[in-house]
Design brief:
mainly alpha; 2 strands; globular; disordered C terminus; cytoplasm; Vinculin/catenin; Alpha-catenin/vinculin-like_sf; actin filament binding; cadherin binding
Length: 743
């Protein structure tokens, strides 16, 4: 799309706007110019209107002057863009001056008839100046955006060079030095790509970027332990295979990021996704409903072929060894019904065409409705099978039995047991890979399809890596490094299972029509923060043990918040105070989890501690205290502990890390207690509601409830003016971009 953000073809800049930051920067300018242009057909103005137009024109001119100054500073710092940027800035300044002159009251002439001042006598000049201004400003922004891309490419190149050095090291001392440099470079790359991911307008590119960054995040820790294991056991073939796999995957992920930001041919629209049942149903249904508008846009034969292609995709379900006989028969029955309804539609369609009907006949309308219904039944059936399979697998694999057995067998040096449990893990991997493929069929959106493909690839790759790590440990059972390496790969597997659980929930949300609003985030460099924006914050380095501890804590917190959401969904009364408070608690816990990954809105430790304080202020209403008093007392104590801990000032890296660890641990405790209480409260709530309904009319007990409910203080957590997150505005988070930093 090569159009300006104002949506008016008259102001087409000829440049494609790919990021939200460029688009959002242009919106105020478009608004002001639109204000001016809207008066072009009314040359005679009152003094008040004239003054307003004059202010807008001068404001545009001043804003353009400041904007051009920043653009010229960028040109000075980046010689390769100097000529292009200079020309764009010159054109923007000229257009701004023209608009200021055209809206200048002093230069306008009074009308001889009534003495009123006439402006915009040069209508063509105003439109021309507006077009030139929007075009030149957009060009400056797009050129500035190129610098962001250049920063990402430069950062990637540094990472690749260091990665090559890491792969060739032969001593621990050399490895430690180079890995320290590699870690710093990866942090820089993560921040640049994270900002870029959030700024992209294209949701498919955003999903691909998220997938690539997830690989890099998980592979960084794997690279550390796999390299250490290979250095400790240089003659071990399984250790070498394990390490080579990590390096290869990191390079592929780095290349994918660059493909996305530079729009290389291997990425974007040319990277086709597997044909999904959901998209097939959507296209087929669209073709059927289009018959209401045009009977001659396609042929009955083409519609029959389209249905058969759709039915063919269901073979991924019906041919699967893991699909039950009942599920297979249900899908086949719905497919047969869809064939019958489509055949009836085709017959009615052919009959309507034979009499040269101009619109769908009554028989056709009935057939269209029946066909759409049977296709909808097919979508529901495959969705039920895919989601049910995934849910069952997550429950079974949540116990991690093959992983535990592999760790034990490896530590005992039992190669036969490792081989046996490797086969079981391979079978588990194949089940998960196939399930991801089925979820891709029913995901409902292209970004979720991309996430499903990423999950499939991750299980496919990590499974064999766990096995090679286990083989290495079995060959060297006393090796602490080999044991640590196996732990890291197992944690990556567990992490992907967590990601799959979240993916499953998002797919269900799409299916049921629930889509959450996304908070915008802009990455375009702000003035004065172009090349030095990564040097202002001083990061506190975490050692490998601290990183592992933090990642594990975050995953545990994420699992608890996911369980809490699941428990809340079981409540019939979604407006209940307990439900609202629990949802807020789960949301805050998820933000704390994102903090441990260096993502989300909590950018500094101070943000995390502020979130902990808000989290500690959440309390559930008491329902039959005599039954759950013990758990409520635990909850109160934990909330007090979290609040006191969050308020306690600390200094230095160790103390800060300990405070973060304590805050997350206590939050986990709060979630665990709430998770224990929710089923009891739900049961009691249903019982209480039943008793009330049997004792009086709904109006009676509602009035009694209103009378007994105390008035909440204004500004409480569940006030209408609160979003329940207790977060500061985005602007207050811009100062810090590090996982941990001490004041």
């Amino acid at each position: 799309m090569a159009s300006s953000p104002c949506g008016n073809g008259n102001f087409d800049s000829g440049l494609e706007i790919k990021t939200r930051s460029v688009e959002q920067t242009l919106i105020p300018l478009v608004s002001q110019i639109t204000t001016l242009i809207n008066h072009k057909d009314k040359p005679k103005k009152s003094e008040r209107t004239l003054a307003a137009i004059h202010r807008v024109g001068q404001a545009v001119s001043v804003a353009v002057g400041r904007f051009v100054a920043v653009g010229e500073a960028i040109a000075t710092e980046n010689q390769e863009l100097k000529d292009e940027m200079g020309q764009a800035c010159f054109e923007a300044r000229r257009a701004g001056d023209a608009i200021a002159q055209l809206t200048d009251v002093a230069s306008a002439l009074p009308s001889q008839a009534d003495g009123r001042v006439t402006v915009f006598s040069d209508r063509t000049g105003m439109v021309k100046a507006a077009r030139l201004l929007l075009s030149s400003v957009t060009k400056v922004l797009v050129l500035a955006d190129r610098i962001v891309i250049k920063q990402i490419i430069t950062s990637r190149n540094k990472v690749l060079v260091t990665l090559d050095h890491l792969e060739r090291v032969s001593t621990f001392q050399e490895f430690v030095q180079i890995f320290s440099q590699f870690g710093n470079e990866m942090v820089e790359f993560a921040h640049l790509t994270g900002d870029r991911q959030n700024d992209l307008k294209d949701e498919k590119k955003k999903a691909r970027m998220a997938a690539a960054r997830a690989v890099l995040e998980k592979c960084t820790m794997m690279l550390l332990t796999a390299s250490k294991t290979c250095l400790r056991h240089p003659d071990c073939e399984s250790a070498r295979i394990n390490k080579d796999g990590v390096f290869h995957r990191m390079r592929c992920a780095l290349e994918q990021v660059i493909d996305i930001v530079t729009e290389a041919r291997s990425c974007g629209e040319n990277q086709l996704l597997p044909a999904s049942i959901y998209n097939g149903i959507k296209d087929f249904k669209s073709s059927v409903e289009c018959l209401r508008e045009n009977l001659y846009s396609s042929s009955p034969q083409s519609m029959g072929s389209q249905l058969e292609a759709l039915v063919e995709r269901t073979e991924d379900f019906t041919d699967s060894a893991y699909t039950s006989h009942e599920q297979r028969q249900a899908i086949l029955s719905v497919c047969q019904l869809a064939r019958q309804d489509t055949q009836q539609l085709m017959n009615a369609w052919i009959e309507a065409q034979s009499v040269h009907a101009k619109e769908a006949t009554e028989d056709m309308e009935v057939a269209i409705l029946k066909t759409c219904q049977s296709i909808g039944d097919l979508r529901r059936e495959v969705h039920k099978v895919a989601v049910g399979r995934a849910t069952d697998l997550l429950k079974v694999h949540g116990e991690q039995l093959p992983l535990r057995a592999l760790k034990t067998a490896g530590a005992e040096g039992n190669l036969e047991a490792v081989a046996e449990y490797s086969r079981k893990l391979t079978e588990q991997k194949e089940q998960l890979v196939e399930t991801c493929r089925l979820l891709c069929h029913v995901s409902g959106t292209e970004p979720l399809e991309i996430t499903c493909v990423h999950a499939e690839e991750t299980f496919h790759v990590i499974g064999p890596q766990i096995i090679s790590a286990a083989q290495t440990l079995a060959l060297h059972p006393s090796s602490k490094i080999a044991k640590e390496n196996l732990e890291v790969f197992c944690e990556a597997w567990e992490s992907q299972l967590c990601d799959m659980a979240l993916l499953l929930r998002e797919i269900n949300d799409v299916f049921e029509g629930r889509r959450g609003d996304k908070r915008p985030y802009l990455s375009l460099p702000r003035p004065g923060k172009l090349s030095a924006n990564l040097k202002t914050a001083k990061a506190v380095k975490l050692d490998a043990e601290e990183q592992t501890s933090m990642a594990k804590l975050g995953l545990e917190l994420r699992l608890l918040s996911s369980d809490l959401d699941t428990e809340v969904e079981k409540w019939e009364a979604q407006e209940h105070d307990i439900v609202r408070q629990s949802q807020s608690l789960a949301s805050m816990a998820y933000n704390m989890y994102l903090f441990t990954r260096g993502e989300g809105l909590l950018k500094t430790t101070l943000d995390l501690f502020h979130q902990a304080e808000v989290c500690a202020s959440v309390s559930l209403v008491d329902e039959e205290k005599s039954v759950v008093m013990t758990e409520l007392e635990k909850l109160v104590a934990l909330c007090q502990q979290l609040q006191m801990g969050a308020k306690t000032p600390v200094q230095g890296k160790t103390a800060t890390f300990q405070k973060v660890d304590s805050s997350i641990q206590t939050t986990k405790g709060i979630l665990a207690v709430v998770l224990y209480l929710l089923p009891f409260c739900n049961k009691l709530s249903k019982k209480y509601k039943s008793e009330r309904s049997s004792l009086g009319s709904p109006q009676d007990w509602r009035e009694r409830q209103d009378a007994s409910t105390p008035v909440r203080e204004e500004g409480a957590l569940n006030s209408k003016n609160s979003n329940g997150f207790g977060l500061k505005s985005l602007e207050q988070h811009m100062a810090g971009l590090n996982l941990l930093e001490s004041k």
